[in-house]
Design goal:
This protein is of the alpha/beta class. It is built from ten helices and eleven strands. Strands 3-4-5-6-7-8-9-10 form an eight-stranded parallel β-barrel, surrounded by seven helices. The chain has a two-stranded antiparallel ribbon with strand order 1-2. The protein is globular, with a radius of gyration of 17 Å. Bound molecules: phosphoenolpyruvate and manganese (II) ion.
Amino acid sequence: MDEMLTGEAYPLVSRASRPEGSRIELAEGITVGGREIVLIAGPCAVEGEAQLLATARHVAAAGAHLLRGGAFKPRSSPYAFQGLGGEGLALLERARAETGLPIVSEVLDETSVEQVAEVADVIQIGSRNMGNGALLRRVARTGKPVLLKRGMAATVEELLLAAEYVLVEGNSNVLLCERGIRGFDGATRNVFDLAAIPLLKELSHLPVVADPSHGTGRRDLVPAMARAAVAAGADALLIEVHPDPEAALSDGAQSLTFDAFTALVGELHAVAEAVGRALAPAGRAVP
Ligand code: PEP
Ligand code: MN
């Protein structure tokens, strides 16, 4: 515990190594870790052209700064939809070309790191892979920013140690993501650890992303936890959005409708202002 508080176990990630905090450029003109809060939104999985492009256009117009979408999906069941793979990546590229939104997408294993890195502006390491040191090192070497999600049974210290794997390879562009941890109560999918947000900010200089979608598993709870995360000091939010959540191939129960996402962005402006921050300006130029 003492070691954790002093950061000796993760010297590169520790707040002590950069007391002023890190600002990380995710794509041209989009920096996270400063006063401005960044919104990452999109479907859990890329399901097809119509679904992805409609979502990308909507979240861009509503004020999101990056588009998320899994082409390779880590599913609990091998019989569940596993993602569109390369075809999904091609659709993400198209969505970026149309909307100007940079892409966040997950890499599942070492064999697809280059394939994902070719398209994604930010590479996501999912909860199930947080402790996969070999994958972390390999992704680090792409030089791309890494969105590192907390393992569903990982301590805050284990998350920081996982981030250290990326920094030790010479890549200090890591975002720490709180996405909820397993609890005993099935009323919510996970226990969204709100306290981890200011704690991570205290222990590390790296920006913190909050994911209330996976954190709660319930779309009715996502807006309140998104507002709370901004109030707690999150530097970015990751929000799942789907044109027809009931028909989604993954994580429909926690995906916001288009209207709910638009309403949430309006609320977040007010919360950000109340805590001395602001949402990053929307409306990146469409290329
Ligand atoms: C996701 O972001 O869709 C995802 C699979 O997240 P996690 O790794 O947090 O479960
Ligand atoms: Mn998901």
